[in-house]
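Weekly structure sync, notes
Attendees: PL (lead), two postdocs, one rotation student
Agenda item 3: pending single-chain targets
PL asked that the sequence for the first pending target be pasted directly into the notes so everyone works from the same version. It is reproduced below exactly as submitted, 92 residues in total.
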Amino acid sequence: MAEVLGDEAIAAGLAGLAWDRQGPELVKVHKGSGFRAALDYVNRVGDLAERADHHPDIDIRWDTVTLRLSTHSAGGITQADLDLARAIDGLE
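Predicted structure, written out during the meeting:
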């Protein structure tokens, strides 16, 4: 089982990333140019998630996509969450 990271490790891992920590989750809000652009972004995130075998919770609201990362089986934020967050930031 993956190990939940401590506050310092999470803060260090988030340095330079476009994500915020909200309790036991990493959260990113991506605003696009419309619904199609939001769907395209979600599909690209989905490709990364499938390759990583680690999947974010995704909410789509017309042109805005909210991603939430947490390792549910571990009960918090793990290195897998930070790794996927970094990969997702690479899409932009």
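Discussion points:
- Helices lie at 7-14, 35-52, 79-89.
- The first helix runs from residue 7 to 14.
Action: rotation student to compare against the earlier draft before next sync.
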